[in-house]
Design brief:
539 residues; alpha+beta; Phosphatase 2c, domain 1; 3 domains; five-stranded antiparallel β-sheet
Length: 539
């Protein structure tokens, strides 16, 4: 019997939806008809249009009887014949069904209004085209009843159409955004700023629509502010604030549109509000589309970066290792620093660290090319300088115009606890070694960065590491991450490294990163990557 209970519950829910739609439609219709001047059934302000559209967009076509009931009740007290009331009801209901059909089936409409195409679709299909249905059928019904003369057809139709369009441009977006954007935390603006904006916009709106000097344009800077900082909720909220002052003050013959009859004044006010509302919504949609694109780019960048850097680095027998890599500011495109180490096949390990000269897809390509070329050539070459020469040729052929710096070392742990190092530098800062006793030395000699010339100047440098010695390889971001405001000199770097003597590899990397950041909260302008190799003391 559960299925019978489910059916009964569905029926009750459906009935409640119909009653709710009818009640809200009726209340909004009474408000709109209270502003009617030209004809008791024609108003330049018609909020029920937006309510009907929202009901079908969210609850489906099956709620049309609620719209029809609300429209029938609202128009039954206007003094027109019953057949005209039926005609107006059919027009109002048909208008909502046509608008929802065009939006859902043709425009692939999303009620969050986060895309420019959705705002344009609401304007074209909702406010312009579908409202012609209600205006045409409604005016025809009033002509049949003798309530509209032949000389009033165009004026009556235009007033009806503008009133319905206003409902789709003001009321519908406000309800849609209120439902889809809760709890309104995505936009960058905060509560205090929203309060200041609302108070300022209210004051300007009162001034603009009370004083008879035309100054309606003064509300636009505040609506732009709302759209930029609070996106869709800000755009519809600002539109409602302006409408709350514009409609009643204009109805009482105040403001920029005073001096005309009521319907003409309200037509101008509705047109102004529609243009202002759509402008704010388009700007808000541009902001959210930009945020969505930036988020997608950031996700792609992070995914690429994870794919270009090793996820699990192996342990090197007899050597402590540590890597500390900090990318540049949030949202930076992929590129920058790379590092890797692997067993080379010569009873030794190859360790590399480099910096790509650029950002974005081209830099990602060069990063992948560098990493995998170095790994492939290391299998059959025993000199780091020769491996870098082969990488230089690959960059010149496959990524012309791109450059990179590399510090490439081959390390061979010995049975006596010492480690032999063969090192070649291509444009990268020279590594530093801190001896067990605290002495700091540079390793290697400067070489040409790769990708710049066909025959770079590269050489091999050999050294031995004793137990307790540690080598620091780093990219230039360590010294000039905050340039030109602050540059870490080689003397400062050496002194900082000297203070780490005796620490393990992880401690050394963390302390050197702290020296580079200097306690600053802001993001560095360049990637910082530190790689530490340390020979542990013998027991």
């Amino acid at each position: 019997m559960r299925w019978l209970a489910a059916i009964e519950e569905d029926r009750r829910t459906y009935a409640l939806k119909l009653l709710l739609v009818a009640a809200v439609y009726y209340g909004a219709a009474k408000l709109g008809l209270s502003l009617a001047f030209m004809n008791s059934s024609i108003s330049a302000v018609w909020p029920p249009t937006g309510i009907a559209l929202v009901a079908i967009v969210f609850w489906g076509y099956r709620v049309w009887p609620g719209i029809a009931l609300g429209a029938l009740l609202a128009n039954s007290w206007t003094g027109i014949p019953f057949y005209s009331t039926i005609g107006i009801t059919i027009g109002n209901t048909g208008e909502a069904l046509v608008a929802a059909f065009l939006l859902r089936e043709v425009a692939d409409f999303r009620p969050s209004l986060e895309r420019v195409r959705d705002v344009i679709a609401l304007l074209v299909f909702g406010a312009i085209l579908s409202t012609m249905v209600s205006a045409s059928i409604g005016v025809a019904s009033l002509i049949a009843a003798g309530n509209v003369s032949s000389g009033e057809i165009w004026t009556s139709w235009r007033t009806w159409w503008l009133g319905d369009a206003g409902g789709d441009l003001l009321v519908a977006p406000a309800i849609m955004v209120a439902i889809t954007h809760w709890p309104y935390r995505r936009a960058p603006g905060r509560a205090l700023e929203a309060l200041v904006l609302a108070v300022a916009l209210s004051g300007v709106s009162f001034f603009v629509f009370y004083d008879k000097v035309p100054r309606a344009f003064l509300v636009f800077p505040f609506m732009i502010w709302a759209a930029l900082r609070f996106w869709q909720p800000g755009a519809v909220g600002a539109s409602l604030i302006v409408a709350a002052f514009a409609i009643p003050l204009t109805a009482n013959d105040h403001g920029s549109f005073s001096g005309l009859n009521l319907d003409q004044r309200l037509q101008l006010a509705q047109t102004f509000l529609g243009v202002a509302s759509m402008s704010a919504l388009v700007l808000a949609a541009v902001m959210t589309e930009r945020q969505r694109i930036e988020g997608a780019a950031r996700y792609i960048s992070e995914t690429l970066q994870k794919g270009l850097l090793p996820s699990n680095l192996p342990e090197i027998p007899g050597v402590e290792t540590a890597v500390d890599s900090r990318p540049a500011g949030e949202g930076e495109l992929v590129g920058g620093d790379f590092y890797d180490w692997f067993e080379s096949g010569f009873q030794s390990w190859d360790v590399m660290l480099g910096d790509i000269g650029g950002k974005g897809p081209a830099a990602a390509r060069t990063t992948a090319l560098a990493r995998y070329t170095l790994r492939a050539d290391a299998v059959h070459e025993d000199r780091p300088s020769r491996i870098l020469e082969l990488l230089n040729g690959a960059i010149m052929r496959q990524a012309p115009g791109e450059t990179c710096t590399v510090a490439y070392s081959r390390i061979a742990p010995r049975r006596d606890g010492r480690v032999a190092v063969t090192l070649s530098i291509a444009g990268n800062p020279l590594p530093l070694v801190v001896r067990a006793g605290g002495v700091v030395e540079e390793l290697g000699g400067a070489g040409t960065l790769l990708g710049a010339v066909p025959n770079p100047l590269l050489s091999d440098y050999r050294a031995d590491l004793e137990p307790g010695d540690a080598v620091l390889l780093y990219t230039d971001g360590l010294t000039d991450a905050y340039a030109p405001d602050r540059i870490l000199s080689q003397e400062e770097l050496a002194a900082a490294l000297q203070r780490t003597a005796g620490g393990n590899a992880t401690e050394i990397a963390a302390q050197m990163q702290d020296v580079a950041l200097d306690g600053r909260d802001r993001d560095p302008r360049d990637d910082i990557t530190i790689l530490v190799l340390r020979v542990p003391e013998t027991v």
